[in-house]
Design a protein that fits this description.
Four copies of one chain form a homotetramer.
Chain A: H1 12-25, E1 34-35, H2 38-45, H3 49-61, E2 65-68, E3 72-75, H4 80-103, H5 108-121
Antiparallel strand pairs in A: 1-3, 2-3
Helix pairs in contact in A: 1-3, 2-3
Chain A binds a DNA duplex (15 and 15 nucleotides) through residues 11-13, 37-39, 47-51, 53-54, 56-57, 67-73.
Amino acid sequence: MIKLDYRDNRPIYEQIKEELKKLIISGAMKTEEKIPSVRELAASLAINPNTIQRAYRELEVEGLIYSQRAKGYFVAPMSAAYSEERIKEKIEILKSALMELHYLKVEKEEITKIVCEIYEKGVAK
Amino acid sequence: MIKLDYRDNRPIYEQIKEELKKLIISGAMKTEEKIPSVRELAASLAINPNTIQRAYRELEVEGLIYSQRAKGYFVAPMSAAYSEERIKEKIEILKSALMELHYLKVEKEEITKIVCEIYEKGVAK
Amino acid sequence: MIKLDYRDNRPIYEQIKEELKKLIISGAMKTEEKIPSVRELAASLAINPNTIQRAYRELEVEGLIYSQRAKGYFVAPMSAAYSEERIKEKIEILKSALMELHYLKVEKEEITKIVCEIYEKGVAK
Amino acid sequence: MIKLDYRDNRPIYEQIKEELKKLIISGAMKTEEKIPSVRELAASLAINPNTIQRAYRELEVEGLIYSQRAKGYFVAPMSAAYSEERIKEKIEILKSALMELHYLKVEKEEITKIVCEIYEKGVAK
DNA sequence: GTGGTCTAGACCACC
DNA sequence: GTGGTCTAGACCACT
């Protein structure tokens, strides 16, 4: 379900966050669906529970999942309306970053390169 | 120095912010240089001083300008090192937004369109 | 059912959101009850349907109502347990905001004034 | 500089966060001022460095402090403009929470009690 | 059994 | 020496 790459420079908890985010946002995991428990996922990835805990906590702060004491973590409700809101929001962030990079004289080619990387390989760098 | 477009959907203070940001980040305005006073700019653009005040205040929060009581607003110091840092930061924000938009199934063409708009016309939409 | 105040500074969609929120949370509208359709409410209030749409969409994101394609919007289920939980949550938010305002040296009188306004007139400012 | 209360139900990292937040927001600690290093504070409070690390990290996410690798943590710049923005923002959050609590039929006396507790004892509950 | 917190101790990259 | 990450292991409160 989740693959880790130890050669990757990014910390493990970041990789877990990204993978889960992908599954949730793309709709592969459904609303209110239970996520593997901290210990369970830690065992299956052969990793320390604290690392999973951190990934889960940060996703909770971002509002993608929520926790119920003694029950587990679950995918937070995401209505269709919510998706649209999120897209608009991210587009705004994108535009703002692009404009600033333009002012900072970053070449268009460099931007295009990043866009292609992400849309082809799935991850950048 | 600053041009407003009343047909633009964006609020006036946003347009002013963007224009000033452009001038400061691209280096057209130098460090410690004085910015037109609130009243002065308001008069020359024929708009309400409160609007200018809001634009300036938000730029101050973003750290691009700073105010000195009874003297006016000035361009905040930005070293070359600072520029590089800012580029890296914005690239990270860009990547993060792009990945999420990818998960949300926004087409690559739509992204490319936005990139081109900004790099050709200078503003998006 | 819903009253608008055009002298109010808040945008129309905000006013509609608040009014509906009031009706739903206080229990005046029951669970699963149908809400007036976008066009219907727009006509009865003599305003643009897009404004209603926005208010409804945001209420959907907040989880207070839900939409069924081609059927309309309905009040989302809210158990008594849910109410208690929501109260606790809002109390926490209240405390956190109060403490920060205290640190920021906002006078107690100013706070009390806001509390009274809301509990007497129903709305603040 | 920071006092912990082990009888308090709140986790230690929360208490540290609150204390630092108080010092920073009220202006007792100045912009760009260095904060005790993770290990240093841990030693002086006789507490595990990981606990301090967590408190600092969360304050960094909230934008109150920032970190420089191999240098330490510092108080983030807070202009006067920023303070005003922050007060306005918190007042809005306060109003919104109050209105919802009103709809939920929470008595005014209960609210007043909380306000007094915070403004007199400094902490609630 | 689950999330949540905390400790002790370790290693890394950076300056 | 500093922040940042990770591990191993422990205890608590809750259901």
